[in-house]
Amino acid sequence: MQILNRATDRMTIEVLLVEDSPGDVRLTKEAFLEANAGIHMSVAPDGVEAMAFLNRHGRYSNAPRPDFILLDLNLPKMDGWEVLARIKSDASLRTIPTVILTTSEAQEDIEKSYQLQANCFLNKPVLFEDFDSLVKSINTFWLKEATLPRQMVYALSSD
Questions:
Q1: Cα–Cα distance measured from residue 158 to residue 24, given in angstroms and rounded to the nearest whole number
Q2: Using CA atoms, how far apart are residues 16 and 14, in angstroms rounded to an integer?
Q3: Collapsing DSSP states into helix, strand and coil, what is residue 124?
Q4: What is the four-CA torsion angle of 112, 143, 130, 99, rounded to 10 degrees?
Q5: Residues 78, 82, 88, 93: what is their CA dihedral angle, to the nearest 10 degrees?
């Protein structure tokens, strides 16, 4: 029996990983694909690329709209807080669940992320086993149990 994602009524879940560390990208992709073969993960290596992807600019003109975003805070060109602020201030993007996944444990980083309307703040574990366990928890809660919002289409008005 095949189960469709409740949010999208399709088999593939689109995840955008915004992460500049090639090692963390590799680990995250491997862990998610092991946890859920129904995930298609796109990667943006910095904040500027993330916004281009989300707004379908330039080489991202045909990019899929993510069902879920994993966002690091410490990014080149545009930091994660700026990306988060732009996502949550854009009516066409704000409903995409955006989870902060970072090495920071600073209380001010946690508070600022929630003030900017992050859906969750998670610390990247150092040990692979712990990271793998965290990814499985993210997958279980956000991509299997939670009902994600359906993709919305916003028409541009010429008013």
A1: 43
A2: 7
A3: coil
A4: -10
A5: -10
The alpha carbon dihedral of 95, 134, 56, 8 has a sign of negative
Q: Which structure tokens are listed for 135?
A: 């990814």
pTM of the model: 0.85
Provide the residue-wise pLDDT of the chain in tens; the chain has 159 residues: 233 444 444 468 899 999 999 989 998 998 888 888 888 999 999 999 999 999 999 999 999 999 999 999 999 999 999 999 999 999 999 999 999 999 999 999 999 999 999 999 999 998 888 988 999 899 888 888 887 776 544 333 333
Q: Which residue's entry shows tokens 């805070």? A: 73
CATH topology of domain 2-152: Rossmann fold (3.40.50)
3-state secondary structure of 59: helix
Nearest to 51 by CA among 24, 21, 86: 86
- Look at residue 119 and give its three-state secondary structure: coil
Of 8, 24, 127, residue with least CA distance to 71: 24
DSSP code, position 58: G
